[in-house]
Amino acid sequence: MSNITFVGGIHGVGKGKVCSELSSILNVNHLSASDVLKWGDVSPEKNNKLVANISDTQDRLIIGLKKVIEDGKSYLLDGHFCLLNSNGEISKIPAKTFQDINPRIISVVTEDIHIIHQRLYKRDGKEYDINTLAEMQSKELEHAFEIAKTLGIPFFEINKRDYTLFLQSFN
Q1: How far is residue 107 from each of residues 2, 45, 68, 96, measured CA to CA in Å?
Q2: pLDDT band at 31 (very low <50, low <70, confident <90, very high)
Q3: Domain extent for 115
Q4: Per-residue pLDDT averaged across 28-43, rounded?
C-alpha cells in the first residue's frame, strides 16, 4: 500500500482540514482512519476518545484499507500514532500497523495546545486535561518520527498550515 501518505496528529489538531486542503492541492484521495475502521461500530458513543482494544482497531484499519485502496491512486490517510486506552492512558500504536500500511511519507499536524483544547471543547462539549493533550502531542510527534526512521521514509511536521516542505517532497 505504498501509495499512502499518513498524516497523524492528536484529536482536534485539524488533521481532517489539513488533509482536505492537501487533497485538493495534490488531487489525491483523502481517507480518515476512523471512517475506514468504522469507529461507529467499535464505539457507540461518537465523541468517545478511549479505545478499549487498540490492537483490534488497528487490525480493523488494515482490513478496511485493503478493501478501499486501489492501485494507481494516491491517498492521504489521516489517523493517529498514539491513542488513549480504556484507562485514559496514552498508548503508542504498534509499529506493525505502520509496517502494514507501508506509507511513502509520514507527517504530523501540530498546533498550539490551547487552540486544540478549545476546538475539542467546542466539538465534543468535553473538558480535556490540557497537560494530557500536551503530552499526547509530544508523544505523537516522537512516535511518528521513530516510525518514519524505522521505515526509512520522509517525516514532516505540519504546523500553522505550512505545507511547503511537505508539498516539495510529495512530487
Answers
A1: 15, 28, 21, 18
A2: very high
A3: 4-164
A4: 76
